[in-house]
Amino acid sequence: MAGGLVGLFDDVAALAKLAAASIDDVGAAAARASMKAAGVVVDDTAVTPTYVHGLAADRELPIIKKIATGSIRNKLLFILPVALVLSEWAPTIVEIILMCGGTFLCYEGGHKILHALKGDNHDHDVPAAALGPDAEEATIKGAVRTDFILSAEIMVISLKEVIDEGFLQRGIIMVVVAVFITVLVYGLVAVIVKMDDVGLAMAQRDEPASQKIGRALVAGMPKLLTGLTIVGTAAMLWVGGHILLVGTDELGWGWPYGIVHDAEETVHGSGILVWLVNTGISAVVGLAVGLMVVTVVAKLPFGSKDTHEAHA
């Protein structure tokens, strides 16, 4: 009897170790998949504060909460089921969709750079603040629509990283990615949005140290958003270019990515240098493709108007 009980405990311990290992695997895969979507994540974080800037301070966090709810709904109820089904029965379509997303990232990056070179700052313009539930609802709906595009890019990029996993594990990993990225993005957005309010409150205190920190926070918010935009633009070009290079290779057109591999060999396998070479070439490819797409879109009938979304 005692021996059977000891055997049962051993089995339970073995199952617990297996479950822990599985959790570790899921966590590691989710982290790896999330990192690939870094460019879109940074862009999403930089964009969302523009939807609440200028609104009443006491409505900022409730609006962010509603946008975050819409974002997780986009990812889990609409994007994830379609992506999982396609990854199981039509993985080539996932690759094509991913390359379309990569092209869009290149377009976004190229568009941002052209406007920066022209000194055009309307990318960060915010509509005049309007009060009332109708205005809030319109703001939320617009943000959730924009989020759908960004979320689709994030989910497909992440899915590609774990497409070789089993269907169930793939689904669990993607749910973890969806929740993690949504919490990360909108948590950071909430901090950014309230940073100037906290700074203003500190600046109004009597303590000189508090006033100094408060003024620094208020002055730092625009610089932080600008920094996020720059990093996001660079990351979009790198990620978008890399997606296109890898995608063409996997679809049978190998010479573009072959050039990258040849360039990597010239640095004799040094990890950081190899990464820099790959990233640099990917960014150049992303910029070239992005500028080309921007030029083509500008010549189309709808391209004559600035139809670029607020997240551009």
Q: How would you sum up this structure, described in words?
A:
This protein has 312 residues and is mostly helical. It has one domain. The chain contains nine helices and no strands. The longest helix is centred in the last third of the chain and has 43 residues, at 208-250.
SSE diagram, text form:
Elements: H1 2-36, H2 38-47, H3 57-89, H4 91-117, H5 133-161, H6 167-203, H7 208-250, H8 255-265, H9 271-299
Helix pairs in contact: 1-5, 1-6, 2-5, 2-6, 2-7, 3-4, 3-5, 3-6, 4-5, 4-7, 4-9, 5-6, 6-7, 7-8, 7-9, 8-9
Describe the structure concisely.
Helix content is 81%, strand content 0%. The chain is an all-alpha fold.
Overall number of strands: 0
Helix content: over 70%
Give the quaternary arrangement of the chains: single chain
Can you tell me the overall shape? globular
Mean pLDDT: 79
Unreliable stretches: 15-21, 122-130, 307-312
Integer count of domains: 1
- The helix tally amounts to 9
Return Rg in Å: 23 Å
Class of secondary structure makeup: mainly alpha
Largest sheet composition? none
Q: State the separation between the terminal residues, measured CA to CA.
A: 69 Å
Q: What is the chain-wise order of helices and strands?
A: HHHHHHHHH
Beta-strand proportion: under 5%
Relevant terms:
single chain, 312 residues, mainly alpha, 9 helices
